[in-house]
Amino acid sequence: MRTAARVQAAIEILDAIAASAREGGAPADSLFSTAMRERRYAGSKDRRAIRAYVYDAIRAVRSAPVSGRAAMLALADGDPELAALFDGSAYGPAPIAPDEPRAETGLAAQALIDLFDSLVGEDEYGAMLDRASLDLRANRIKAAAADLAAHFPEGEAIAGVPDGWRLPPETAAAQHAAYADGAFEVQDAASQYASAALDAAPGQAIVDLCAGGGGKTLAIASLTGDGSDILACDTNRARLQQLPPRAERAGATRIETRLLNPGQELDMLAEWRGKADRVFVDAPCSGSGTWRRSPELRWRLTPARLERHLADQAKLLAIGADLVAPGGKLLYAVCSIIAREGRAQVDEFLKQNPGWTADGGYLPGGIGRAAGHGFLLTPAHDGCDGFFLARLTRAC
């Protein structure tokens, strides 16, 4: 493909991504893959170049643009070489007209920025859209962090994560034979901090209430040396079905999965009520802490969608608390830097549940900042995805 044709392809893909963001449809990665399947004539170099154009535009533009062309023009205004490709050549974009609309650039819409936790300063904004490193977690059931160092000598240890190893962005670690053997998982440091903060131990009964594909479930199994019974739950069948084969590969033999019907969670967990030593509530959220990996999430969040997340979080906190045994602990986590999803949710929970207290001291030194009754992690401060964590203990 000619370079101009690559730009036009990126514009068309951005059209689909912007429309999907407004409608709450498929994510950008999925749409990009579909677009490339439809363009079988595009070679590997073409695909890499088109992807770079698409994601550079997504990172630059603060909210869903009126068109993919408007997004690319916003990039072209600061890149004369890119602007020159709008030349009207065959399969390329039409020449730029002086009065054409440009998408607005920046971190996010101001109304969204205003929702950030007060700990997040303007000096942190740039790191929120930087390309993320590739973090690995050694699976203690089969391997150790020293093995990761041997397999990937170009990496480095992650502060405060004994099983973690950090590699440059887009390293093809999952193609290594050790991955197929279950020696490690790809997992951001923030998720590793969260899994460790649960304070799980062998012999405990543990519930992962929002397990999804099981990344943190497997981390908990690793931390306990496959020594605890873990119930992994979710309402999304497709995501939960990913866990059993992952657990088999990891050698985690004591994980049970349970698909829950929305609105019937407590009934379907009746035998666990008041019995769990540890409950992990990794609640659905805005994903505002993961913009480094999924920058189009800035284009997706609307007031209505945020309100739905807030309602789900409060409901899941209540369900999780009902499962915890006296003296047991619940870890609430969201990959968000929005205060209403983090500290405000825990403040309200503790107000409504006087028999619970907030723990402290469960993160490594220097990691996270106190945010109400929990801790906030951010890319700039902690070198990982943005997360809010709060560990709560039920009175005996």
Q: What features would you describe in this structure?
A:
With 396 residues, the chain is α/β, with parallel strands linked by helices. It has 3 domains: 104 residues; 53 residues, Alpha-Beta Plaits (2-Layer Sandwich); 206 residues, Rossmann fold. Helices cover 38% and strands 17% of the residues. It has 17 helices and 13 strands. Helix 1 crosses helix 3 and helix 9 crosses helix 10. The mean pLDDT is 96.
Strand content: 15-25%
Compute the number of structural domains. 3
User: Unreliable runs, pLDDT <50, ≥5 residues?
Assistant: none
The assigned structural class equals alpha/beta
Specify the overall morphology. globular
> Can you identify the CATH superfamily of the largest domain?
Vaccinia Virus protein VP39
The CATH topology of the largest domain is what? Answer: Rossmann fold
CATH class descriptor of the largest domain: Alpha Beta
Kindly state the percentage of residues in helix: 25-40%
Order of helices and strands: HHHHHHEHEEHEHEHEHHEHEHHEHEEEHE
Report the span from N to C terminus. 67 Å
How many DSSP helices? 17
Architecture (CATH level 2) name of the largest domain: 3-Layer(aba) Sandwich
How would you characterize the largest beta sheet? 9 strands, mixed
Q: Give the number of DSSP strands.
A: 13
Q: Average pLDDT across residues?
A: 96
Determine Rg (CA atoms, Å): 22 Å
Concise summary:
Helices cover 38% and strands 17% of the residues. With 396 residues, the protein is of the alpha/beta class.
